[in-house]
Design goal:
Length: 633
């Protein structure tokens, strides 16, 4: 691979398009700036937050360049959003409610009680959460944590919990509150498809990009993700219905359950004694994702909009401020009503108009290019696609209702990318001819077409250096023009890997706490998705586990499928080997921390059969690839 070139400047067509953005939107509106800085109390004295090993997991000073003027290489709207989001420190929401912002992708909220504090959404990493708590205490005193609340099941809202409390404190009675279904969704999302999600998340958040005007400037919802220690303490109090009330340390809360909105398990919270409404991640200062670019289940905008309508009816008349686990609060009842109503209309419009157009026969690509947002929603800054986008959200709505197939039989059985690429390049006259024409399109500023066409050359011959270089240049220009922070990060990370080669995935896909939180059933499912089907299709192995502290469990590998059955009966086949042990030892074996041959002679373990059968079964599991290729075959 040749020496990696430096990022290039913006081409004139991109610079001109970015200048046009300044004329299109009301950049003289400073309301968001006033709201974002309202109640500022101070920030940390040290910029870098480090882990126990001395490694930097967050840098508060990394985005200082955003204080300057927006360059041609960044969409001015994204620059504005990133500048607002990068503000870091402790902020008073109302008397008794405080937020630490800019210490991670999300905000950590602190509510003062009679004796101590309730911590809401303790960030991604223990290190950043601990630093946020230290900052709060530096300004408000050494108040003990008397409870924790997770608003929903995404890692940036629970992963740092061990930076603020311990498992021992929870065992002694400290409440950890979460919406019903939180634990199952929190662990399954990060385990079943966790490797692929983490790899794509590295692109989405630009984790390996240099921070700067030609690199990563933010992700719209927050700046990026911290890289410290991720943990999980299971909740001890479930919120199971809208209208449920709980009091923790004198703090009265009224809950609204909102499953199937931004997360499969989520809730909003009203604090009647503070006239304050926490909207979790259901109403933030951007258009959110209906299908995040890292990958997830498609979210339901119809349900999302209805829950926002319900929140307006339940809480707005008693709320002087609305805040969320990202961005900054909105103050005043009239403004809260307008904000929530416009957020509601945003998701409802995307849902309804996508359905209208798909019922007229338009395909996902056509809908994304055709849909026009109402002027009132386009003017409001908080509806802009900094994180989600109108383009990929309409495609998500289509996918939710009709799936991947657009109905055209020509798309029913297409060649995979590399095979198709070789045929395209041959039909177009060979790589040299494709690149000659693509360079003309590049000079004309048609970077979308260059990326689409040259991608075929790269997939036909991934070692073609000229193709990789031109493709990287095109992706880079697309990134420079993107209002969406995650699109910019995807484009620029793709360009970086084309120029430099694979840069890896700097996150742990399944931290130990999440693995420990898996039920045995989920753990067996997680093993089943690792079976190498072609290599194991002739295997027929049955292992029965006689749990001393539970029902028997039978694992059978047959036809390339690993099934599991709890209990006895016809579905539990006769075993090749039967092993008696407790659940903790079973987990150790299935997680790979105890080898099969270590079971022989272990206290409390009985073996009836040949342990080599267990080793053979486990030998059919394959390891996921955390660094799989994305912009090359």
């Amino acid at each position: 691979m040749p020496q990696t070139p430096e990022p290039k400047p913006a081409e004139p067509v991109v610079a001109q398009a970015n200048q046009a953005v300044r004329q299109r939107f009301p950049f003289d509106d400073t309301q968001d700036l006033q709201d974002a800085r309202h109640g500022f109390m101070g920030t940390a004295t040290e910029d870098v937050i480090r882990g126990a090993d001395g490694r930097a997991v967050w840098d508060l000073g990394a985005y200082g360049f955003l204080d300057g003027d927006c360059p041609d290489t960044v969409n001015p709207s994204l620059w504005r959003q990133s500048r607002l989001v990068a503000d870091h420190g402790l902020f008073e929401v109302v008397e008794g409610i405080y937020q630490v912002r800019g210490f991670d992708l999300s905000n950590m909220t602190v509510v003062e009680g009679d004796r101590g504090i309730l911590v809401i959404d303790p960030l991604i990493s223990a290190e950043t959460a601990a630093a946020a708590l230290d900052l709060y205490r530096a300004h408000r005193g050494e108040r003990p944590v008397t409870g924790v609340l997770y608003t929903h099941s995404h890692v940036d809202h629970f992963g740092g919990v061990k930076g603020v409390i311990s498992e021992e404190e929870v065992a002694a009675g400290m409440p950890v509150i979460a919406p019903e279904g939180f634990l199952a969704h929190a662990v399954s999302e990060n385990v079943y498809a966790g490797t692929a999600m983490a790899r794509r998340a590295a692109y989405m958040y630009g984790a390996v990009l240099p921070k700067g005007e030609r690199g990563q400037v933010g992700a719209g919802l927050g700046q990026t993700t911290s890289t410290g220690s991720v943990g999980l303490i299971p909740p001890s109090v479930d919120i199971t219905r809208t209208g449920q009330t709980e009091t923790v340390d004198g703090i009265r809360m009224v809950f609204q359950l909102t499953p199937g909105t931004e997360a499969p398990a989520e809730l909003n919270i009203h604090f009647p004694d503070h006239a304050a409404l926490c909207m979790a991640e259901n109403a933030t200062h951007n258009l959110h994702n209906l299908l995040t670019l890292r990958g997830a289940e498609v979210r339901d905008p119809r349900t999302w909009a209805r829950y926002l309508t319900e929140a307006i009816g339940l809480f707005v008349d008693a709320s002087d401020v609305a805040f969320a686990s990202h961005h900054w609060p909105v103050r005043g009842r009239d403004r809260v009503l307008t904000f929530l109503s416009e957020q509601r209309d945003l998701y409802a419009y995307l849902h309804d108009q996508t359905l209208r157009m798909l019922n007229q026969g338009l395909t996902p690509l056509e809908i994304a290019e055709t849909i026009e947002m109402p002027p009132a929603l386009e003017r409001a800054w908080h509806t802009h696609g900094y994180y989600g986008s109108v383009s990929h959200n309409t495609k998500a709505v289509y996918q939710r209702y009709l799936g991947w197939f657009d109905g055209n039989p020509a798309h029913l059985w297409e060649h995979p990318p590399a095979e198709a690429a070789r045929r395209y390049v041959e039909f177009m006259g060979g790589p040299d001819e494709v690149l000659r024409r693509a360079r003309r399109s590049y000079e004309a500023g048609d970077f979308r077409w260059v990326a689409q066409v040259v991608n075929h050359v790269v997939f036909a011959d991934p070692d073609h250096h000229e193709a990789r270089a031109l493709q990287a240049d095109a992706l880079e220009q697309l990134g420079y023009g993107s209002e969406n922070g995650t699109w910019r990060n995807f484009y620029l990370t793709g360009a970086l890997e084309l120029r430099q080669g694979p840069v890896g995935t700097p996150t742990v896909t399944a931290p130990p706490d999440l693995l420990r939180a898996l039920t045995v059933d989920q753990l067996c499912d997680a093993l089943a998705i690792r079976v190498d089907g072609p290599r194991s299709r002739d295997a027929d192995i049955t292992v029965r586990w006689k749990l001393v502290d539970g029902d028997p469990l039978t694992l059978r590998l047959r036809n390339g499928v690993l099934t599991h059955v709890t209990g006895n009966g016809p579905a539990a086949a006769d075993p090749d080997i039967e092993i008696g042990l407790d659940e903790a030892t079973l987990r150790a074996v299935l997680l790979g921390t105890t080898a099969p041959d270590e079971l022989a002679g272990q206290a409390g373990v009985t073996v009836d059969g040949d342990l080599r059968k267990l080793s053979e079964l486990l030998g059919h599991l394959s390891a996921p690839d955390p660094d799989f290729a994305i912009v090359t075959p």
